[in-house]
Specification:
Elements (H helix, E strand, L loop, with lengths): L4 E2 L8 E2 L16 H5 L5 E4 L2 E4 L3 H22 L9 H7 L5 H29 L1 H7 L1 H12 L4 H29 L5 H26 L2 H19 L6 H6 L3 H12 L6 H16 L4 H5 L2 H19 L2 H6 L1 H8 L5 H22 L5 H28 L11 H13 L4 H9 L2 H56 L8 H9 L2
Antiparallel strand pairs: 1-2, 3-4
Helix pairs in contact: 2-7, 2-8, 2-9, 4-5, 4-7, 4-21, 5-7, 6-7, 6-9, 7-8, 8-9, 8-17, 14-20, 14-21, 14-22, 16-17, 17-19, 18-19, 18-21
Length: 503
């Protein structure tokens, strides 16, 4: 599950981790004059000399914010060390869980994440991005305490749902924060940190599960990470954009100085952002009128389609149940070790993916990604079929590691980040708030279905049948991208909207 995009309240534009601020249109339909003069946020003229903004404060604030992503990643990765049907959970807690109950333990966090998608955007607009994230440490702590002191399956259920709430909130609020503090030249780089730190959190869960072999201790460590985030992030500034939206220019000025350095002339940047907000307010139209346009309808089809195929590729089933998958595959490589290898591959691929995703076209990467995902899930299906029905892979039971790692590499290059990146590109500002939040909610709901019913599917159609189902969705997804998804790289919002409005 890779959620890197955020939307604010209704009728406000979302901010995505790898997206540049879209040029606004004036009442005459021409691009805003500030875009024409080409003012850079990287360097501004002060007293006849060019003063560069400091970037270290921006990187530090971004890393502090994305420590919340590490905490969210540990929620997602926590299920894997629990073992097949929660066998390690049973051993460490002494609480018996059936396969059906464990599927709920695994999936309820995604349901909690979906439930917070829209409320966190409203909360971030009311009290600020910084305090919305700091506030999420409370449910994070409550959820982990329920898990740590669980004496029944019901306590696991509530604990997982509540930690999912906080994890989902960080998936919305943290990229919003980083995108609003960053200069346009490094916004993509800083934005990619969220997904990178998310995978680091997943890997940390995998590694600790292998190293300590105790789910209760793993839960305690997982509960400490949000507190570390609180202690570090508490000293970071609120975003200047939030202060401007609240009409507090002096607070915005102070925030920019902290993020850009004392010698940086913030006035031009402040004026530019103020005019952008004013233009957005003047050109605003009602949501009901905007959603009826051909472009909005096509955008919704594209957004929901990408979210559907992202999750139905089976990525969250692989992340949540990777140890279980390798247990089925045999013992050539211990399941815990194989899971750690998968986690390392995921972190590395996300890191390198962030370097290439802005250089190649969205459409090309999506097509390449889902095509290879089809092949890898097809091969995994063949592998598990042979494991159950013949001895073709008896001497190479470790083989499953190859297609599984390749799947995560191409997912991280394409279908992981790009659907989130395209959300603000395909929606007009008037519909981004509701349409984007709806797509986010839909993504988590599909993730819930996949993780909840993964064990049911493997019981009904075996492991090979489950992966062939994922493979089938990848085939349909390839056709969907080829026929319906436009290329948006290097196009303005106005150009994209005109293309979507065409027949």
């Amino acid at each position: 599950m890779m959620t890197n995009c955020t939307w604010e309240a209704e009728n406000t534009a979302p901010t995505c981790s790898n997206d540049e601020r879209t040029p606004l249109l004036s009442a005459s339909g021409q691009q805003d004059s500030m875009d024409k003069v080409g003012i850079s946020q990287q360097t501004l003229v002060s007293n006849g000399s060019i003063v560069k903004a400091k970037r270290l404060p921006q990187y530090l604030a971004c890393i502090a914010a994305t420590l919340g992503a590490v905490a969210a990643g540990m929620v997602l990765g926590w299920t894997s060390p629990a073992g097949k049907d929660g066998v390690n959970l049973i051993a460490d807690y002494g609480i018996h869980t059936t396969a059906e109950e464990f599927s709920w333990v695994g999936s309820l966090s995604t349901l909690g994440a979906g439930a917070i998608c829209i409320p966190i955007g409203i909360l971030a607009d009311k009290i600020g991005r910084k305090y919305a994230m700091l506030l999420m440490v409370v449910p994070f702590s409550v959820g982990w305490l329920l898990i740590i002191f669980s004496n029944s399956v019901l306590m696991f259920f509530f604990g997982r749902f509540i930690t999912g709430l906080s994890a989902g909130a960080f998936c919305v609020a943290a990229p919003l924060y980083t995108s609003e503090i960053a200069e346009s030249e490094i916004r993509g780089t800083l934005g990619s940190y969220f997904q990178l730190m998310l995978t680091v959190g997943i890997l940390l869960s995998y590694f600790l599960g292998w190293a300590i072999h105790n789910m209760k201790i793993l839960s305690i460590i997982s509960g400490i990470v949000p507190l570390i985030f609180f202690g570090v992030f508490f000293f970071m500034p609120e975003t200047p954009i939030y202060h401007l939206k609240k009409g507090d220019e002096e607070a915005a000025r102070k925030s920019w100085i902290r993020l850009r350095g004392n010698h940086y002339d913030v006035e031009t940047e402040l004026q530019m952002e103020r005019e952008a907000l004013d233009n957005a307010s003047r050109n605003n139209v009602s949501f009901m009128d905007a959603i009826k346009t051909r472009a909005a309808k096509k955008g919704l089809v594209i957004a929901f389609g990408l979210m559907l195929f992202q999750q139905m590729s089976g990525v969250n089933a692989i992340i949540f149940y990777s140890s279980d998958i390798f247990t089925q595959a045999g013992n050539a490589i211990p399941p815990d070790v194989a899971t750690i290898i998968v986690g390392v591959v995921q972190v590395i691929s996300v890191f390198f993916g962030s370097l290439f995703v802005d250089k190649l076209g969205r459409r090309l990467l999506l097509l390449a990604s889902i095509s290879i995902m089809f092949l890898t899930t097809l091969i995994l299906g063949v592998y598990f079929y042979c494991i159950e029905n013949n001895n073709a892979f008896d001497d190479i039971t470790w083989f499953a590691l190859i297609p599984l790692c390749l799947f995560l590499v191409v997912f991280s290059l394409g279908f992981g980040p790009i659907p989130w990146m395209m959300m603000p590109e395909i929606f007009a500002p008037e519909v981004k708030g509701i349409a984007g939040s709806s797509a986010c909610l839909f993504n988590w709901l599909v993730a819930f279905v996949v993780t909840k019913f993964y064990t049911n599917m493997t019981a009904a159609v075996h492991g090979y049948g489950t992966f062939w189902i994922f493979s089938g969705f990848c085939v349909v997804g390839t056709i969907f991208v080829y026929l319906l998804v436009p290329e948006t790289k290097n196009k303005t919002l106005d150009q994209i909207q005109r293309e979507l409005n065409q027949d």
